[in-house]
Amino acid sequence: MTRKEQQILKETIKRIIRSNTYLWWELKRQCFEFGSADSVPRIWEYEQPVKKFLHALSAKEKALLYLEALKRSKDKFNDINLFIESTYLLPILEEIGRRANIAANKTVYW
Predict the structure, then answer these.
(1) Residue 64's pLDDT is what?
(2) CB-based contact 91:68 (threshold 8 Å)
(3) Beta-carbon neighbour count of residue 22 at 10 Å?
(4) pLDDT band at 38, cuts 50/70/90?
(5) Chain-centre distance for alpha carbon 109
(6) For a Cys-Cys bond, which of 3, 13, 45, 61 suits 57, CB 3.0-4.6 Å?
(7) Whose CA is closest to 4, among 66, 89, 81, 93?
(8) Distance (Å, rounded) from C-alpha 89 to C-alpha 96?
(9) What is the DSSP letter of 45?
(10) SS3 letters across 19-75
């Protein structure tokens, strides 16, 4: 993701993480135990919440993300929601995993 895309999605990612505190703690715990979010199965439990929050973005945010994504790819979709979901699902999951790794290493009391 570019810096602009990260800026647009920053608050959405925070809301996704805060939407399920139990899942967040479990993801952090698994990152702590296994070393990386890449090898943690819990990360995929965020797939549906990410899709839900992406569909709930404002029209302005969707348009900004669409224009940013078109700078890298010339693929055009008729359905902007499908385009945003297919473009940003995995990068958001990676960002959640990155944040979980950082948070797991900062957590003192389990």
Answers:
(1) 94
(2) no
(3) 7
(4) confident
(5) 26
(6) 61
(7) 66
(8) 11
(9) G
(10) CCHHHHHHHHHHHHHHCCHHHCHHHHHHHHHHHHHHHCCCHHHHHHHHHHHHHHCCC
